[in-house]
Amino acid sequence: MSISDPASPRVAIVGTGGIARAHARALAQLPAVSLAACVDPVADAREAFAAEFAVPRRVPSLAELLEGGGIDVVHLCTPPSTHAPLALEALGAGVHVLCEKPSALSLSELDAIIAAERRSGARFATVFQHRFGPGGARLIELARSGRLGSVRTATCETLWDRPPAYFDPPWRGRWGTEGGGPTLGHGIHQIDLLLAALGPFTRICASARRQALPTNTEDVSAAVVEFASGAVATIISSLLSVRESSRLRIDLELASIEVEHVYGYTDADWRFTPRAGAPTDVRSAWDLPGDSPSSSHLDQFRAVYGALADGTAPAGLPVDSASARETLLLITALYQSAFTGTWVTREEADAPGPFHRALDGGGRAPWDDVKEEH
């Protein structure tokens, strides 16, 4: 797979809903990148988006876009159940894919995407923008380097609020179309940053419930996770929290690092607490610019298109499919534990079986009276 001019890639956005506008606004801040096309089966939505962002080419389907050629990267901003089939279509045409979370609805789907990457030479990446702000990048570096000692404990919270009307779109809140509830669709950003900092998990024990919202999926989940490093973390994801908060706290031997925000952090949202009496190099380890804008798609897009321009893309685009798979593997284990009422190991979650194919295991949720059809 090759791009005619890696320094000036031609991009198409597939799906023109709200998140597509975040993509378009970020791309507009990358002068070398050309937003060349948009795709949406709904003509009015497609034309309105094209007019808003001066997109010269607008088509109703990805197939028509790819048939016409001239596109190097597609951004998938469509409902979750379409991510895998659209990614496979683009990769099959030798076009790179940058996909909104979740990467896919199951490990089986994501493994099919990884296989398609190998065949085509094009690359697949998932949008996990919280890794790329200065604070997130510093957290990952410090936790992985051992500069502050080993990680002891961590707390990962996504406490959001969604009214029943949020689920009016028929694809939301359904296993077969959204893939899961707040664990997969909302908490995944904090979970991904946690894993990027702490590394591989070994086992998990979880609970999930549907308490209030008109969904088939959960509206809250909680878990205890053990990591290969010896660290222990708690994870909670909720859509029932009146005071919304996204919080990640990591306690290392020599310091505690914490961020609290809602949908995007700034430098001011982080708190670094060195251990009393820590040496100067520990106390100065957290120095940030102090005036960085809120973490956003732009930070990751800079990294993605930088990799294309400097020739490192063949090794994988940030965040590559293998890294995104780690996040989906933990979420798979969380659901498997919640459905079976047992501790689930990394190996058990990654083994072929019902939860590998669908996050509800293809069966009845603990809170359902009847099985949902897939």
TrEMBL record:
Residues 139-257 form the GFO/IDH/MocA-like oxidoreductase domain. InterPro entries: Gfo/Idh/MocA-like_OxRdtase_N, Gfo/Idh/MocA_Oxidoreductase, GFO_IDH_MocA-like_dom, NAD(P)-bd_dom_sf. It comes from the Bacteria. Keywords: NAD. SUPFAM superfamilies: Glyceraldehyde-3-phosphate dehydrogenase-like, C-terminal domain, NAD(P)-binding Rossmann-fold domains. Residues 352-374 are annotated as: Disordered. It holds the Pfam family GFO_IDH_MocA. Residues 10-125 form the Gfo/Idh/MocA-like oxidoreductase N-terminal domain. Transmembrane segments: none annotated. This is Gfo/Idh/MocA family protein. It comes from Brachybacterium hainanense.
